[in-house]
């Protein structure tokens, strides 16, 4: 098993006082737990996060990046700016951005490329809709999303990559995917990555996370799966008590489903 990675996606929540307090709590937590923590606040709190998380072992992540290096892109942030703020990770291709901001596969691929070019670690989000799941298209869709998002980068650039499998129907709904669904889909993802990049690259450089209504109640079962290298947590990451329980989950290997 790899060391687990727990990433918090605060989305567009909290004010400066609340975020400062949560950064401080996460910094203390990071000092005494084994999973790697990545905190992705709104962009306006990145600089505070950089100060508060310093020397704690927790990493800072952004929720988005522009695919261009620099220029006349009002309202946007470049990979270089995020690096300047102390970011190490950046979420890309989140289903909320794909659905609400028109981010298509080509754009996601450009964003992955600019991140890797700048030695930032993409947290690439993939996942099927409820309709796709009902039609039995989950596996083909998530593998297609991986291939298209990684189309512009070559293997030598994959020093570190995070893939977050977030079924769209499980995000913010309290409808967590079943353990069987998570295990089957994530096994497909891992096998696909091994075919694409070889086992040792996947073992060494790629974390595959689950996201979608992860809570203090379901985290142990999810994190106990061998194919799950960690979680991307939305709502529950805003409540420190819940987030702490997720980060301290008692992870016991589960019997593998056939
Ligand atoms: O979208 C998510 C994380 O990126 C998941 O959000 P929830 O944990 O609130 O379902």
**Range of helix content:** 40-55%
Hetero ligands = 1,3-dihydroxyacetonephosphate
- Our estimate of the beta-strand percent is 15-25%
For the biggest sheet, the summary is: 8 strands, parallel, barrel
Average of per-residue pLDDT values: 96
Broad structural category: alpha/beta
Number of helical regions? 11
CATH architecture: Alpha-Beta Barrel
N-to-C SSE string, H for helix and E for strand = EHEHEHEHHEHHEHHEHEH
What name does the CATH topology carry? Answer: TIM Barrel
How big is the Rg? 17 Å
What is the domain tally? 1
Tally of DSSP β-strands: 8
Shape: globular
- Poorly predicted regions are none
Span of the ends, CA to CA: 19 Å
Enzyme class: isomerase
Subunit structure: Homodimer.
Subcellular location: Cytoplasm
GO molecular function, one term: triose-phosphate isomerase activity
Task: Provide an overview of this structure.
This protein has 258 residues and is an alpha/beta fold. It has a single domain (5-247), classed as TIM Barrel. 40% of the residues lie in helices and 16% in strands. The protein contains eleven helices and eight strands. It has an eight-stranded parallel barrel, surrounded by seven helices. Helix 1 links the parallel strand 1 and strand 2 (36-40). Helix 8 (179-197) packs across helix 9 (199-205). The longest helix has 19 residues, at 179-197. The protein is globular, with a radius of gyration of 17 Å. The relative contact order is 0.14.
